[in-house]
Amino acid sequence: MEQRRADSIAEELEELIFTGTYRDGDRLDEMRLAEQFGVSRTPLREAFQRLALSGLVELIPRRGAFVRQPGPVELMEMFEVMAELEAICGRLAAMRISDAALDELRSANANCKAAVEVQDCDAYYTENERFHRIIYQQSGNRFLEQETAKLHKRLKPFRRQQLRFRGRMAQSMAEHEAIVDALVQGDAAGAGEALRAHVAVQGEKFHNLMASLQSAAE
Fold first, then answer.
1. 115 and 169 in contact (C-beta within 8 Å)?
2. How far apart are CA 93 and CA 105, in angstroms?
3. Residue 180 backbone dihedrals phi, psi, to 5 degrees
């Protein structure tokens, strides 16, 4: 129960950071937040740890937790690496994926589609995360799977946030379908390119994400 509460607190704090309620360098008052959320300090500290893993919070010994917004260059670099890691996973998975895993991807996509229909960003992200982790696992390379999952966790709040942009969920859904098609056909190059394009923050979506971060920092 406490673990689920810590997850929900972390998500609420992410939203407060993105909307500018908490700005870069702000200290997160542990006592006040524990009272605000109606919890003990244990799930709150676990929430801080989750935010620290994604880089949104910096934990300083004997001082506390401080908001840390990545700059646009740092964020762009992380997404650039993420896109390449996922492309490698896609190429390898196209050669190694099992029929059972393809069925799991189709199931995740069906749930994503249902979330798009009701415009539920959180439900979409949950299935989106499942979708990507299946591909990591099906790469057949344990080291690659672990490193990709690690960066995925770091970028989680940013990947979830961009789903709120108008039309992004439907676009993401179409990209998922193209990825599955390439995997079914065993098209390694096509799967890799589809995943790279899916993850890369480009054009209007990159501009919008940067604008939201800048607004939160001002």
1. yes
2. 12
3. -60, -40
